[in-house]
Amino acid sequence: xxxxxxxxxxxxxxxxxxxxxxxxxxxxxxxxxxxxxxxxxxxxxxxxxxxxxxxxxxxxxxxxxxxxxxxxxxxxxxxxxxxxxxxxxxxxxxxxxxxxxxxxxxxxxxxxxxxxxxxxxxxxxxxxxxxxxxxxxxxxxxxxxxxxxxxxxxxxxxxxxxxxxxxxxxxxxxxxxxxxxxxxxxxxxxxxxxxxxxxxxxxxxxxxxxxxxxxxxxxxxxxxxxxxxxxxxxxxxxxxxxxxxxxxxxxxxxxxxxxxxxxxxxxxxxxxxxxxxxxxxxxxxxxx
Amino acid sequence: xxxxxxxxxxxxxxxxxxxxxxxxxxxxxxxxxxxxxxxxxxxxxxxxxxxxxxxxxxxxxxxxxxxxxxxxxxxxxxxxxxxxxxxxxxxxxxxxxxxxxxxxxxxxxxxxxxxxxxxxxxxxxxxxxxxxxxxxxxxxxxxxxxxxxxxxxxxxxxxxxxxxxxxxxxxxxxxxxxxxxxxxxxxxxxxxxxxxxxxxxxxxxxxxxxxxxxxxxxxxxxxxxxxxxxxxxxxxxxxxxxxxxxxxxxxxxxxxxxxxxxxxxxxxxxxxxxxxxx
Lengths: 288, 278
Hints:
A: alpha/beta; 2 domains; 9-stranded mixed β-sheet; 39% helix; 25% strand; elongated; B: 2 domains; two-stranded antiparallel sheet
C-alpha cells in the first residue's frame, strides 16, 4: 500500500481541487481529509457517512466553587494563564492537569471534552475518512492522526493500493500529523514569491521527516518567471515536478457545481494538466 | 485598536488585506501571527533590526536521581515522557511546557531547560512597524510562538494581526483579545464553508467582526447570503483582477501600484472604528 499526502505550506493553492480530481482518476484509492479545521474535500466528493466516532481531545480543568478555598495555588502554577478569579478559562486551558494536581483540597475536576467527530464514509469514487474539529478546539493533530489511521485501516480492509491524503496548510502540528507513516508528499505551489517561500519550508519539513517530495505548480501561467524559478529549484534539488496546471476558470465553476474539475469538464485545460500530473504520480509511486 | 485579519480558508488574501491596510493607514504596527508560513515580510521587505529566540522550558531527567517510578510519564497529558524498565526518555517536541513533570517527580530528578522552537524578527518598512514569528521547521507547537509575537504589541495606535488559516488553537490565540476581526473570504463554496467555521470561532471569542470578500466576481453568491442571514457586514469587496494577482505574485502590495485603493482601505478602517465604538 502506498500513502501520499497533498500539502502546500501556503493555504489556498489548490490542494483539495487536486485531491478531488485524483480521487476521480484513481481506481484503487482511499481518501482522507486531514484538514480537520477547514475541511473542504467533502464538498466535492459528497461522502455518505457510514460511521461516526466521537473525538475526545485533551481534558479541561473545572474548579468547584463550593470546595475552593481560594488559596490561589492553581493560578500560580498554571503556565497558560488559564486560571483567574478562581475560574478556569476553557479557551486557555491546555488540559495539562497541573492545577488538578496541586490543588490542596481536591477542588478541581478534570473532565473529558468532545473536540470533534471523525467519520468513515462512502463516496462514488471509493471509501473516505474525514472529520470535523469543533471550531476553536485544541489538538487538531490528534484528530488528524485518527483520520489518517482510519484511512489506512479502510485501505487494508478494502484491499486498496493507495491512501490519498488532503493535508492542512502550514507546517505545524496538524501537517506533521498528516505526514506520519506517509511515503510521499506532493506540494502544490502557486508561482508567487509567498508561494515559493512557503514551498521551501514545506519541502524542508518533508526532508526533516524523511518523506519523498514531489511538486505540482498551480496557476503556472500567472507568473512565468516564478514558475521557471520553481522549475529550476526542483531540478537543482532533484525533486520531481509532476504537473503544471494553468489558471482556468473552469476550476471555480466546478467548485460551485460541487464536482471535481476532471469530472465537471474533462476537456478543460486544468483537467488535462491534472490528468497528466496524475499519470506522473502513478508512475513515480509505481501504482498498477 | 487591535484588528485581527483571519479567514478559515487559506489563500483568501489575509496577508494582502493586512499589508495593504497597514500601508494605507500609515504608522500601524503589523504583527504576522502566521508563524508556520509568515508572508507579510515578503510584501513589505522590511529592514530588520532585531531578532530573539522563542524558547520553551522542557524537562531533562537527572539520571543519577531518577528511580524510573514512572510518575512523570503517567502525569504527562502530552506523552512527552516515556519510562519503561530502567529507561526514562523525553520527547521534547511533544512537551507543552506545563511544568507538571517536575512538580510530580518524588525524587526531584527533573530539571527544566529552555529549548528554542522558533524566533521573533522585528523590522520596519517605511512607517510600518513589522514583527513576525517563525516556527522552526519540524516543531509542532505554533501557539507559544504566536503568543511571543503578540507580546510585541505596542500599547497605542493601530495594531494589525495577520492570523494563520484554519479554525483551531493558533487562530484562537491570534484573535483572542482583538477589538475587531476582519474575516477575508472568497465567494466560493470552499470560502463559504470555512467562513462559517471561522465565524463560529470569532463569535465564541466575543470579538466583533466583518467580512472582506476577495476575488469578488468568481464563484457564487453563497457568502453574501450567509452574511446577510447572520447579520455580518460585508465591509469591502476586492474584485478578482489578474493585475492584482500578478502584483501579488511579484510580492508587490497593490495599493502601491493602484493608489485609489488606499482611500478604500482607509474607509474600511473607519467602518471598523465605528463598529468598535458601538
